[in-house]
Write a structure and sequence with these properties.
This protein has about 250 residues and is of the alpha/beta class. It has a single domain, classed as Chloramphenicol acetyltransferase-like domain (Chloramphenicol Acetyltransferase), CATH 3.30.559.10. The chain is about 40% helix and about 25% strand. The strands form 2 sheets. It has a 6-stranded mixed β-sheet. It has a two-stranded antiparallel sheet with strand order 2-3. A hairpin with a 6-residue loop joins strand 7 and strand 8. Helix 1 crosses helix 5 and helix 3 crosses helix 4. It is globular.
C-alpha cells in the first residue's frame, strides 16, 4: 500500500468566497491603468501629526480618502448596470475592502464594506481601519457562511441573478473595490499587482517603497473598471485625479 504523503483540509466559507469572487471576476470585462505617485510629503505629514498628537491616520487611510474623492467627483465610475440595461448612478460609493487577519496562528482573508467612502473624512476612515486591525472576525455574516455551503451550481445561479440587481448587489458586495499590499521593494524593480474583482471600479495600491538614492517614497497603483460602465477616458481621468488628490493632500 502506498505511503500517504498528503493531508486534507476542509475549505472554510471565506475560502469558498474567494474562489467564487474569482469566478465572478472572470465574468466582468475589466479595463486597466497603471500609475505611480511620490508620497514622501504625505509620510512626513503623518509622522509629524503622530509626533504631536500620539496617533493619526495611516497611509492606507489617506489612499482610501483620496480614492473616495475621485469617486465623489465621478459618480458614474461606481454605477451599476441592471438586466434592463439601466445604469444606476449612486450618491454613495460602498467600497469592498479585503484584508488579512490571524486566526489560530494562521492568516486568513477577511473583508469589510466601507459604506459611503466618498463622504468620509480621513479620520473617519482611520477609525474604521483601527476597528479592522483589532478584530479577529472574518467579517462574513452568518447568511453568507450558510450560502457558501450550498452546491456550486446553486451559488452560481444565485450570483447570476444578484449581479443583475444593482441595489441588492451594492448592499451585499459594495460597488467598488479597494486593496492594499505593503511591500518593501526597490524602485529599480517596482511591483505592480493586478486585482481581479467584479465591481464597477477598483484600486489596488502597492507600497510605499524607497528610492535608493533620494530616499523618497513611491507607491504604485492599479486602476480597473468594468468596461460596460466606464471607458478608457474615464479610467485614465480617475488615475490622474487620484494622483492629484495625493499630491495635494493636507490634514484638516
Amino acid at each position: 500500500m502506498p505511503t500517504k504523503n498528503y493531508f486534507t483540509e476542509k475549505l472554510k466559507p471565506v475560502d469558498i468566497m474567494v474562489a467564487d469572487s474569482a469566478y465572478l471576476g472572470s465574468k466582468v470585462n475589466l479595463i486597466h491603468a497603471l500609475g505611480k505617485a511620490d508620497v514622501t510629503h504625505i509620510k512626513k505629514m503623518l509622522d509629524d501629526y503622530r509626533a504631536a498628537n500620539g496617533h493619526g491616520p495611516s497611509m492606507i487611510a489617506v489612499c482610501l480618502y483620496c480614492y473616495g474623492q475621485v469617486l465623489q467627483e465621478q459618480k458614474r465610475l461606481h454605477a451599476l448596470k441592471s438586466w434592463r440595461n439601466l445604469r444606476y448612478v449612486f450618491e454613495d460609493a460602498d467600497a469592498f475592502f479585503p484584508y488579512e487577519i490571524e486566526v489560530n496562528g494562521k492568516k486568513v482573508l477577511a473583508s469589510k464594506i466601507i459604506r459611503a467612502l466618498n463622504k468620509k473624512t480621513v479620520f473617519e476612515i482611520e477609525a474604521i481601519l483601527s476597528d479592522v486591525r483589532s478584530t479577529s472576525d472574518d467579517g462574513l455574516p452568518s447568511y453568507k457562511k450558510h450560502f457558501m455551503k450550498l452546491p456550486k451550481w446553486i451559488r452560481q445561479i444565485g450570483y447570476s441573478i444578484l449581479m443583475s440587481m444593482p441595489l441588492q448587489r451594492k448592499d451585499i458586495f459594495g460597488s467598488v473595490y479597494f486593496g492594499a499590499v505593503k511591500k518593501h521593494i526597490s524602485i529599480e524593480n517596482p511591483t505592480y499587482a493586478f486585482a481581479n474583482h467584479f465591481h464597477s471600479f477598483g484600486l489596488l495600491v502597492v507600497g510605499p517603497f524607497v528610492h535608493p538614492e533620494t530616499n523618497s517614497l513611491h507607491m504604485t497603483a492599479h486602476f480597473s473598471a468594468d468596461h460596460t460602465i466606464s471607458n478608457g477616458l474615464g479610467l485614465t481621468n480617475a488615475a490622474v485625479r487620484f494622483k492629484y488628490h495625493l499630491d495635494n493632500f493636507k490634514l484638516p
